[in-house]
Specification:
Length: about 325
């Protein structure tokens, strides 16, 4: 068996695999055999890898009947795809890419191939956010109970613990009062958790995860679908909070507080959801994401993300 795959791994995937040590090196060594097995089992022709992300290898593929697809292989000890497969199976194509196959032994999924990401199409921010809201309304799945998915209470607790873990004297471009406010909001959202108000939410529905569906009319509400769901049993406002954490440049260029509140109120109007939890989840996500970006070396984006949070925290809202 060759120790070096003929598939050219994207640098981020290779580095991630190598960082896992022996298990990652073995995953690389087995990669050609793994892909061949999946090609045979799922009647595939596999093409080149796609860029983006580091926890999974994503390959263009086509079934022998001509169906275009994407083959995704998760790295060992990370990028677990069984959870994503479960969400996609429940969605059955409504608001999400359709799941074609899943192999838990190889941590692999085959999904329908969609078009370009919304983020790459050059639309203004407001258009992107409106499109994502339309797609969210298609994608939210009604569940009576969490059924094994992370709950809103669990997500709030995890984010609070992560932010709190930096400590009051942490060397990060984000003030301690800002971090304290994010933790307080997380405790508030956790206390507000109510299963009767929850859906199975995407959990990371941003413009990179929102892809054009070529089979739909471009003006149709269903012309975009999501990929890569986190899958959370949580209030709808959480998914809208994700839209509060990005698009930094325009927030920093103007009255950051006013523009933030206008964005929040507009999202609430589009979806008929109370703006308060949207604001709180958005603030929590902005702080936790900014800290993660800083921690992983993406300092410029982290600084911008957290600068907005500091300005928002300084306001009386």
């Amino acid at each position: 068996m060759s120790t070096e795959p003929t598939i050219i791994l994207p640098p981020a995937v290779r580095l991630h695999a190598q960082a896992l040590g022996a298990v990652g090196s073995q995953w690389i060594a087995d990669l050609d055999d793994t892909v061949r097995e999946l090609q045979d089992a799922w009647a595939l022709r596999v093409g080149p890898p796609l860029s983006g992300g580091s926890a999974s290898l994503v390959l263009l593929a086509e079934r022998t009947d001509g169906t275009p697809a994407v083959l995704k292989l998760g790295l060992p000890e990370s990028g677990e795809l069984a959870h994503q497969a479960r969400v996609l199976r429940l969605a059955d194509g409504r608001g999400y890419a359709r799941l074609l196959e899943h192999d838990s032994s190889h941590n692999a999924v085959l999904v329908e191939r969609l078009g370009a990401a919304l983020a790459t199409e050059g639309h203004p921010t407001k258009h992107q956010m409106e499109t994502i809201c339309q797609t969210l309304k298609q994608a939210w799945i009604s569940l009576e109970m969490p059924d094994g998915f992370t709950t809103g209470a669990g997500k709030a607790r995890g984010l609070a613990d992560y932010i709190d873990g930096f400590g009051p004297d942490a060397d990060v471009p984000c003030s301690a009062p800002t971090r304290d406010r994010a933790v307080a909001f997380a405790h508030e959202r956790g206390a507000a958790y109510n299963p009767t108000h929850c859906v199975l939410a995407h959990g990371d529905g941003h413009a990179e995860n929102t892809l054009h569906c070529p089979m739909s009319g471009r003006d149709a509400a269903s012309s975009y679908r999501f990929v890569d769901p986190d899958g959370l049993f949580i209030e709808r406002a959480y998914d809208l909070g994700i839209l509060m954490r990005g698009f930094n440049a325009e927030l920093l260029a103007g009255d950051t507080i006013l523009l933030g509140r206008q964005r929040c109120d507009w999202l609430a109007e589009l979806t008929k959801i109370d703006p308060q939890p949207i604001w709180q989840w958005g603030f929590i996500e902005r702080v936790s994401t900014g800290l993660f970006l800083w921690q992983t070396g993406r300092h410029e984006l982290a600084t911008q993300t957290l600068a907005v949070a500091d300005r928002w925290a300084a306001s009386v809202l």
